[in-house]
Specification:
Layout lengths: L1 H44 L2 E3 L3 E3 L12 H5 L12 E3 L4 H6 L4 E3 L14 H10 L1
Antiparallel strand pairs: 1-2, 3-4
Length: 130
Amino acid sequence: MFKKKVFIIAVLGLTTLFCCGYVAWYSYNRGVKIAQAEECSQRVENPTPVTGGLLFVEPCLIIAIPPSLWNLIHGNIAVGGVPKSMTVNPYSFKDVLFGNYTLGPNTNSPCDQSATTTPCATIISSAALK
């Protein structure tokens, strides 16, 4: 009887430790992604001047910010940091679990001709073929 209680307590303790560790890791990982996105936007807004009067803007990746665990628990999977021209690619349970969301082009948005030299009809027809 004593061994059974010890086993149950050990299993519950390990489960609790795992859950607390996961919550801490997920929150830390989300915080790192938020900090990277803020640093990237600061570099874009305030580029560092290079000798000769030129500005050097360091390209940075678009970082998808995973939802908080509170939102995940309540079923609100809203990924942050997604520009209007991008969309969140289909994701699996593993992606949700680790907060790894990828972004792709938003083919449902209208073409902005001022942002490209290629005619919009060509872009839309080539996207439809894929």
